[in-house]
Amino acid sequence: MRVRAAVTLLTLGLLASGCSLQERTDRDPLESSDSNRRQVIRSEGVASLPVFSLAVRSGDLIFLSGQLGAIPGVSPPQVVEGGIEAETRQTMENMIAVLDAAGATLEDLLKCTVFLADIADYEAMNAVYAEYFTSDPPARAALAGSGLALGALVEVDCIAAAPEGI
């Protein structure tokens, strides 16, 4: 009941202050079409499932779905053997392939989130991850989660800046 009262008071306050909804005039309607706002990125060989896109570009940003250390070209998807180091390396290579399909590189990454099946793998994952960034790595968070897809030890999702002209 308190939430409803708070929403009502907020709404009344906005109305009393003269706030109203107005049509946006700062966008060209032709530029905001779905084809310009959302572009699905596909990459040959990188394992994916039909329930998500490998990446989606919207405006100046590219959103990569969580990448695993799945072996390219293997169907159904299968995670590479060899432990956290091998999985992290393959995950990074899969990210590179998806970024390449979007016309981007690792240098275009802005933010990554690393999911680990076991936080004890943090240092080993970090050692491999660091090999891919020789200068100024993207912002990043890392956390442990149980039950990653395909029994994976690591999964990484990212946001990248879309290069100009692409």
Describe the structure.
By secondary structure, this protein is α+β, with helices and mostly antiparallel strands. The protein has one domain: 60s Ribosomal Protein L30, Chain: A (2-Layer Sandwich). Helix content is 29%, strand content 22%. It has helices at residues 2-16, 34-37, 83-101, 122-131; strands at residues 39-41, 55-58, 61-67, 109-116, 139-144, 154-161. It has a six-stranded mixed β-sheet. Helix 3 (83-101) packs across helix 4 (122-131). The longest helix has 19 residues, at 83-101. The radius of gyration is 21 Å and the shape is globular. The termini are far apart. Residues 5-17 have low confidence and may be disordered.
Spans where pLDDT lies below 50 across 5 or more residues: 5-17
Number of helices, where a helix is a run of at least 4 consecutive DSSP H or I residues = 4
CATH superfamily: RutC-like
Q: Which of globular, elongated, flat, extended, rod-shaped describes the shape?
A: globular
CATH architecture: 2-Layer Sandwich
CATH class, anyone? Answer: Alpha Beta
Through-space gap between termini: 50 Å
Structural domain tally: 1
Query: What is the N-to-C succession of helices and strands?
Result: HHEEEHEHEE
Question: How many runs of DSSP E, i.e. beta strands?
Answer: 6
Task: Calculate the mean pLDDT score and round it.
Answer: 81
Write down the CATH topology. 60s Ribosomal Protein L30, Chain: A
Helix content: 25-40%
Q: Numbering strands along the chain, what is their spatial order in the largest sheet?
A: 1-2-3-6-4-5
Structural class: alpha+beta
Give the strand content: 15-25%
Any idea what the radius of gyration is?
21 Å
